Structure formats: C-alpha cells, structure tokens
Task: inverse folding
C-alpha cells in the first residue's frame, strides 16, 4: 500500500491516501481480498454514467422499474448465501445474523416494489374557491443521481434500505461502501448487473476510504445519503452545503430503554440484553442505556446480568456476537467502561478485562451516573449501562435531554404508549427491542445529533423525490385572480363572502 497519512481527522480518521484496500477475514485476521481505491476521476466517470442512465430508468415508469427490481430481488435471493458468507467474513458477525441482513434487504425491496407507485404516483389535489376553474395535481420527480455512503456495521441491510427507496423513485445510485466491507457491495453490484444487464450504470459502486466519499460528493450527485458517525456526518453536510446538495444523514445514537415499575421484567431483560449486545453492540439503535425505576431495579439487574453472562462471543458457529472489526472502536469501548467505573459504577458482568484487542465480551455496568460517558456518548460496543431512576418521568427527561434522538424502548404493562409518546426520538419499540427497524413500512431516522431525513416507508420513498406541483385551467372563471383588470369590488366581495362563511361556521360550532 502507499502512504497511509490521514487526509482528514476529526475525532477519527476518515480518509487515507491509499491505492488499495486490503480487507481481512475477521475470524482469523488474515488478508481476505484487495480492492482498487477510486479517486476523483473514477467518481466523475461514475456520476457521468449514472446521469446518462437516469433518463432511460425513469422512462421505464413505475411498473418497468418494478419488473427490474423484482429481477434484482430474485438474484439476491438466489445468491443470498454467498452474500451472507461475505458479510460474515468481512464484518465478522455470526452467519445467521448475516442472513438476517439478506432477508431484510429482500423485504425492503418488496416494499418499494409494491408501494412506490402508490406513494409517488400522480396525486390529484382539490381546487379551492379562488381557483375553482383549475385542475391541480402533484407529481414526484427523481433527483437524478443519488450518492450513498454506507457503513460497515450493517454493510448490506443499511445501504439497500436507502438504495431501494432511491431506485424505486427513479434515481440512479452510486454506492460507496465502508473500506472494511467492500466485498459485500461488490457482490451486490454483481447481482444487479446479472438482473438488469441493460442498465448497469443505474447502480454502481466506488471503493475507497473517506477521500473517495469526498470525491463522490465533489463529482456532483443530486442528493447524498450518509450513514456513519456524527463527526463525519458534520463534515459530509458541510461539503454538501457548498453546492446546496440535499443530504440524508443517519448518524449515531445513544438509545435508551425505560423499565417501568409495572414492566414484565423477564420480557424486558431478554429484549434489552439482546438489544444491547446483538451485532456486538454495533448499531446506531443499540440499547446502550437502561433507565430502571428503583422499585424494580435490583431484580432487573439480576436478570440481565444472568442473561448477559451466557452470550457467546467468537467467530465459530456457536457464537452469538462476533469481533470488533473497526480497531479504533476498541479504545472507545474501554474508555467508556473505565469512566463509568471511576465515577462509582460496578460491572456485574465483564468490565475492563472483557475488552481485548479484537473482541469485546458483554459488559453490564450498574450504578452508572447520568453524566457518565457510558450514559451520554455512543459506545458502539456490547455494553449496557444501567441508571437507577425514581420514576419514568425522570427516565423520559434523561432520554429527551440527550443530544441524540434516534431509537428507544419502553417496557410497561399499562403505560407503554403514554410513556413512549413523550420521548423526543424518532422511533420507539414498546415491550420489545428494535422492532421498528424490522418493518420497511415504518420511517427510520432521528433528530438532533442522530441526523435528519428518513429512509424506509412512505417518507423514505419521498426522501428521494421532489414534488412538482401543477395547475391547468379547465374553463372560464367568475373573475380572473391572475390578471389585471379585475371587476371593481370583486375582491372585496370575495373577502366578504369568505368572512361570512367563517363567522357562520363559528356560530355553528358555538351552538353545538
């Protein structure tokens, strides 16, 4: 490899001057594959090719695009085991968890195939009294070329959820994957090329580090979607702002779970331990903090500690969570545990000794103060911080005051919805964990430092299309509202008519 000097550092290196990406098999640490790094010229060529493909792709119409997306979905399903094996090798997650990504990708494609025309098709709009001689409607147009910068923690599921929305809306897409998992995206592009050989440029990829992502933005896509850290997201947003390129940001989270005094503790413990530890805690929606009402705190701690002790770590077929594929994450996990312990917390499971060079075993921290790093900053590891609270009001206040606002969970037999509705977050599972992410009909996104914009659902489809409003005259008007020479007194009479109608409506409301 060439000089690996960082091009940009923020709170982590996001770019390198490198000619090659060398990936590793996470189970062994051995070299897995090599990929050429794309630069400015490759990014410009990709955007030019994508732009030339947008017209033919849009001209297919909703059904024509749906036919090709069905063919792509079939190709992914047929070679899904190959894709899952690549995810397992490059990311390190258990093979069954890798299969979950393939299944999720197929579900997202099915949703857009079935719903894109309903959501984005021509929509008639009622006329109003002033323009009663006008027909009105809205059509949704694609942006054109959409750049997608994807993550390593869910290298297939996360980008496909975005790519599916963008393609179904009529855009061409260029996907820049994480340098940790480029092979997954290479496989995805190959499935597209087999399924849609007549329009290969509609979906392309660019491999590289952060500098490749910067080159993609500089090449001029019409919209960008980024998934990653808050610090890098701010850098991406700043670059997009220079050209007023609209951007979807799916950033970090410090997702909290609330355990109320009336919660089913067995159910809460099972779901929260899974929500915190699954995927080695590498999820922006992982449940990193549990706010537990004091009356059930001790019993709940016993239950989660017992469950967490039995989570199997490794790369063999029995493993439930895998290694930490991003080396820079290990020091962060260790720092958050150490900070909590120094502030008076104790580890009922794990602790500093649980964090090795490549693996981190589950850690449960009890007695965590609300201002500890483990309770305020994204850990992105298999840790769970438990904060004792007086009541659910205090728990809601802690979650809503945080700088993140992505996902959450609430456990209560009788008050789950009432508690959840008060949280200033984008998504909440009630008496379960992370299930909102499993339904492609639900919009996915957050607020605050968790970013803005939405993927999935109707909102996700509209995220990648802009509304074009139309009116068309259908006949003569009583008087023209859009020319000079209106009849004397016409506007005064119109205002008086509207005023009288409003007053009559108010009188009716008062009588009832």
Result:
């Amino acid at each position: 490899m060439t000089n690996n000097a960082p091009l940009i550092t923020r709170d982590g290196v996001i770019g390198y001057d490198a000619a090659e990406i060398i990936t590793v098999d996470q189970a062994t640490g051995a070299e897995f594959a090599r990929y050429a790094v794309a630069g400015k010229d490759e990014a410009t060529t990709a955007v030019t090719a994508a732009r030339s493909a947008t017209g033919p792709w849009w001209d297919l119409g909703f059904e024509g695009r749906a036919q090709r997306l069905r063919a792509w979905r079939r190709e992914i399903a047929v070679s899904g085991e190959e894709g899952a094996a690549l995810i397992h090798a490059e990311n390190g997650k258990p093979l069954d968890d890798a299969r979950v990504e393939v299944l999720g990708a197929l579900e997202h494609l099915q949703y857009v195939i079935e719903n894109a025309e309903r959501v984005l098709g021509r929509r008639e709009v009622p006329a109003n009294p002033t323009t009663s001689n006008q027909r009105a409607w809205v059509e949704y147009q694609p942006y054109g070329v959409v750049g997608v910068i994807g993550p390593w923690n869910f290298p297939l599921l996360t980008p496909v959820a975005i790519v599916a929305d963008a393609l179904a809306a009529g855009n061409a897409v260029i996907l820049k994957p994480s340098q940790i998992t480029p092979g997954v995206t290479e496989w995805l592009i190959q499935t597209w090329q087999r399924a849609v050989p007549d329009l290969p440029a509609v979906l392309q990829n660019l491999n590289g580090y952060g500098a490749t992502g910067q080159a993609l933005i500089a090449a001029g896509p019409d919209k960008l979607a980024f998934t990653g850290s808050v610090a890098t997201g701010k850098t991406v947003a700043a670059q997009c702002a220079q050209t007023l390129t609209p951007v979807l940001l799916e950033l970090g989270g410090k997702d909290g779970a609330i355990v109320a005094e009336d919660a089913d503790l067995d159910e809460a413990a099972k779901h929260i331990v899974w929500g915190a530890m699954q995927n080695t805690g590498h999820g922006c929606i992982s449940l990193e903090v549990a706010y537990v009402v004091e009356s059930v705190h001790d019993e709940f701690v016993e239950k989660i500690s017992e469950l967490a002790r039995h989570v199997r770590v490794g790369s063999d077929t029995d493993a439930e969570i895998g290694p930490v594929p991003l080396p820079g994450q290990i020091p962060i996990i260790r720092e958050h545990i150490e900070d909590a312990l120094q502030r008076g917390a104790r580890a009922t499971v794990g602790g500093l000794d649980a964090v090795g060079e490549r693996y981190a075993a589950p850690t449960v921290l009890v007695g965590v103060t609300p201002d500890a790093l483990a309770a305020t900053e994204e850990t992105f590891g298999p840790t769970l911080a438990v904060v004792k609270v007086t009541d659910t009001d205090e728990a809601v206040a802690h979650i809503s005051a945080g700088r993140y606002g992505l996902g959450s969970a609430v456990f209560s037999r009788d008050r789950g919805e009432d508690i959840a509705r008060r949280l200033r977050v984008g998504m909440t599972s009630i008496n379960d964990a992370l299930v909102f992410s499993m339904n492609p009909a639900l919009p996915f996104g957050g607020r605050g430092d968790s970013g803005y914009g939405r993927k999935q659902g109707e909102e996700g489809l509209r995220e990648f299309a802009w509304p074009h409003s139309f009116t068309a005259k259908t006949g003569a008007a009583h008087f023209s509202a859009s020319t000079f020479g209106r009849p004397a007194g016409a506007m005064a009479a119109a205002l008086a008519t509207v005023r009288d109608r409003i007053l009559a409506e108010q009188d009716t409301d008062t009588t009832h």
Q: What stands out?
A: The two ends are 79 Å apart (CA to CA). Residues 480-511 form one domain.
